[in-house]
Amino acid sequence: MKEVDGPLITVTKKTTVTKTDSIPTIVDNNLRNLFAQTPGLFYSEQQMPGQLNLSYRGIGNPQESEFVTVMLDGIPLEGDWVGFPTVYTFPLPQTISQIQMIRGGSSLLYGPEPPPVINMISRKPDPNKEFSGYSENVVGSNGMFGTFNQVSGTKGSWDYLADLNYRKDDGQRDNGKSELSGGDFHVGYRTDESYTALDLHAYDLWTGDPGKLNYQQFQQDEDQTTTPFNKLWTDRYVLSLSHEQKYGEDSELFAKVWYGYQDQASRSQDRPPPGQTQPITSTLQDEKFNFTGIDVRSVTHWGRGNAFTIGTTLYHSDAPFRQWEEDTLSPDRYERFGDACRSANQVDCEKFRQQRSTDYGAIFAENVFRFENGWHIVPSVRIDHEKVDIDETIHTPRPAEALIDRSVDHTVPLFGFGFGNDFGHGNESYFNVSQGWRPVRYFDIGSPFGALDPTLNNPDPTHVLSWEAGVHGTPLPGLFYDTSVFWVDVTDRIESQPAGPDAPQGNTINVNTGNTRHRGFEGQFDYDFLAARDPKTAQHLSLFANLQLLNADFTETHNPAVSVGNKPAFTPDYLVRIGVAYREDRKLKLALSVVSVADQYFQDSNKPAPNATATPSTNGYIPAKVPSYTVADFSGDWWVLPQVRLLGGVQNIFDRKYYNRVFSNGIDPAQGRTFYIGAAYEF
After folding, report:
1. Does this model's pTM top 0.90?
2. Is residue 68 helix, strand or coil?
3. Are strands 539-556 and 644-651 parallel, antiparallel or unpaired?
4. Which DSSP string do the residues of 105-160 spell out, in sequence order?
5. pLDDT digits over 477-488, tens only?
């Protein structure tokens, strides 16, 4: 990224940018291809679309990217940025121009969650035509069909963009069918001193959920289905208004306000009743999120290359959560009942209801000071405040006096400091030490699952301190490199423990008793053989590779199932990506990439499931370690005419059988080999 990118100071922060125009078209949201040149980012895969599962440097479970901030144009993709920071939607790569990844210091730029921030930048209207268009249609394995259609243009001071997309897939497993539809709309107005834009993003998905497998089932047949009636629905609509305004010769204001609505509904089969082997009832669940935010930032350039930024962010979300007990396995999404369940065995009634809300605010400032001989320093400060509120009115079979009615708030000051030096020809050293944090969520103080004690449960936020030192640059034509070492301390991890002798049997509390340490090396290089010979060439043949080496362990814990020295879950010793890409502008794009990940524990206990002494013959057995795996993908775009290109690709070329998304109750198999072919027309 630029050292000062609009209102963001990124110098001394390790960053990575992927420009989607430089890689073949990403079809069917294959995120292995999208993140092939992003070092260290762990992608936990699932066959059904929707949930995005990312983690970084072994901090937290990758499930739904709860420990990574994911944004679209600086607006959080999470359902509730603070109270429920999960990602259930992901924009089509066709709508994205670049993906930015900011490591240490990202919390000082964007607030909640440990580093990094993944910020996707939407594609902009065609600046050179009054009217242009693009249409893409593809078919592939498992009955996949996708279409994406876009028009855009610029006329005078106005620009516009609109797109519609649709994708269906029958899935690799029974009950794996899905349908996704969506659209985007943009209109902007530009003057010499300002730019104002209105944007709308819409997303509708329904998908079956074939269910998780135990290890024996996975070994026998990874395509079998264990939950033939489970289903998920996700709707998300976000409207934003942004404004950029220059004032004076050296200052600029960046402001955006947004409103969004997200509805996550699911249908899941219940456990079989006593004496039976098959379920006969199901649970309908619905989580709604109505959120509003505003972000205002200003940058002032002063002196010889110095820059000062200051800003504020405000955010509010209302997030009601409800569950109903149904007397069939396949009720409709809206087949809901208003009467509260009087007992755990009653059906056709409402068994859970919470009204939840969060308020979040922040003020922040940074400055880059530049000195002689290429030296620069960046001090940073941010003050965050969260308030989380839960009012529970139904929780069958919990009695009225045990219902949760709680509000907690925390103020978290964050500081950072970075320095670096520009040396030689196109090289820069960087050092950064920054604080980050993970807010207390709804589930930390009042979960519908399990039996959290409503009076004793009061955890504090988790705190993160990141150290990183490295060097990067472009010292030779065609060569880019970036190499660094890092040390991350995570303190006050929230762990579950028995509530104590005075609490009801089975009640637990979430407490801050876990500390972990994450150390390692991260490096990448990209060498363009043709640009090395001719920097102005339109042809590019690149070899790229990136590597993360990670050593992580628990330094403190009071969880009886976890020991000091244990490796945190999902902390592979190595994660390496390597590939080769060929690109000739508007003629041909080809890419072959390989990702290889070391084995890793899936639980902090470093033990198998369903218990620490389980063996392969134990019912429901899950091995303690996720086996290592290596997967290769190939994709390409070929322009047969100036306006027409053919698209094609093969994912998981060697049909590797593996998994990297796993829970104590089962394995989510990764996708086998798939292919796609299609065509695109642009004008």
Report:
1. yes
2. coil
3. unpaired
4. THHHHH-SSSS-EEEEEEPPPPSS-SSEEEEEEEEEGGGEEEEEEEEEEEETTEEE
5. 999 999 999 999
